Amino acid sequence: IISGEGDLCDNVDSVAVLVLSTSGIPPYSLSIQQNGEEWMEHITYSSSDTIIVIEEGFYEISAITDSNCEGTKSGSVSVFTRPVPYAQFTSNPSVAYIGNSEIVFYNSSQLADVFVWDFGDSTYNNLDYNPIHTYTDTGKFQISLQISNEFGCTDSVTHTIIIHPHFHFYIPNAFTPNGDNENDVFIGKGEGIADYQLTVFNRWGGVVFYSNSIEEGWDGIPKSASEISPNGVYSYKVDVTDLLGKKHTYTGEVSLLR
Q: For the whole model, what pTM was predicted?
């Protein structure tokens, strides 16, 4: 007897299995045809054996022999090529800040009826076609969609979602560089910052301080000087770029009080 197990999916990695069941005294020699033409001679010492098939067609046993007897056709099976599904999705947004990190996934897969989502944060969804997911932590997440159809043919796709820290920025309007270790430095502070530039000007528009590091502030001493500037109001400009590449500019005045 020859029977089929599974279908061929329409891709190079797919196979079907022909299951052979015989009775008698081994060894068995089977002549198998494909679409009416001789396909292969198969010798086995087992009453149950399998043959891997990578092409669709109509397979039948044309002759069978054991150690004593010969037989004729005793079974056949048709193997069909089945459509392979196509997995794809998009997300909105693909980059977000924590605290505003609800992501909508739009499924554009084809020829599938089972969808399993892996959101990359140890959570999964196999119920929704277009799921909505909220991330509770920052980082880079690999989102995978695995799909399959009624024939067991599968496909998958993976995209990346980036969740950045929340962006905020603060800069004071006064500082007291008197050496008491309290508010001695004029400096901006924030979160979610990729690039930072601070420029401080005197009343005539001359630059008295510049820094491109958010860790470095102005201690009140002008460049090319050794003493703290006199009390007064100084102008500043801060250029900040957040982790999404958006630029923010802050201008204002700061009071130096010794």
A: 0.58
